[in-house]
Amino acid sequence: MRNIVSNNLTFPAAAEQFLKTKSAEWSNAKHAAQWRSTLEAHVYTVLGGMDVKIIQTTDVRRVLDKIWATKTVTAQRVAQRIAAILDWSTALGYREGANPARWKGHLEMVMVAPTTISTVEHQPSMPYAQAPSLWATLSETPLLISANCLRFIMATACRSNEARSATVSAPNTCL
């Protein structure tokens, strides 16, 4: 059995140190801000004064049970964030044992699967028969970037984010 670091580390202090360590890997500062926001809104009220050594499954459940049925996607992210911070704490010797926020083989045994809670409502699609009419309308406005973007999406079936984020790196070149 390995030794646990002798000094105490509260969950918020661990979260701050984790964010300092890992935020350099993230693509933008907004990601770290989202982490902080969800931790402050949902986690610190329950785990805020607790030492990471003593956090158990029941503590994690007290956080998640409040939002699991109503904010399922957020609750999943919160669980993943708690798990990451506790994994970090374990790796540095501030706690030992299994991670009480781990989903696979742990929380999945005591909580309702998120896929059974939330129903996904997809954006409705245009009836296929109306596509030629839309194409013709978009073709009448060739100088509008948005019209050309939508025509590109229709022609390639790519995702809208991919089309909107596309850049031209070398014009007139073919692969």
Q: What's a quick, concise take on this entry?
A:
This protein is mainly α and 175 residues long. Helices cover 57% and strands 0% of the residues.
How does this model look, in words?
The relative contact order is 0.10. This protein folds into 2 domains: 11-117, Orthogonal Bundle (DNA polymerase, domain 1), CATH 1.10.150; 128-165, no CATH class. The chain has helices at 11-22, 29-47, 57-65, 72-91, 103-110, 114-117, 131-139, 145-156, 160-165. It is elongated. Mean pLDDT is 87; it is low at 1-5. It contains 9 helices and no strands.
Provide the fold topology.
Layout: H1 11-22, H2 29-47, H3 57-65, H4 72-91, H5 103-110, H6 114-117, H7 131-139, H8 145-156, H9 160-165
Helix pairs in contact: 1-2, 1-4, 2-3, 2-4, 7-8
CATH class of the largest domain: Mainly Alpha
Number of DSSP helical runs: 9
- Percent range of helical residues: 55-70%
CATH topology of the largest domain: DNA polymerase, domain 1
Number of strands: 0
Number of self-contained structural domains? 2
Low-pLDDT regions: 1-5
Global structural class: mainly alpha
Give descriptors for this structure.
DNA polymerase, domain 1; 175 residues; 0% strand; 2 domains
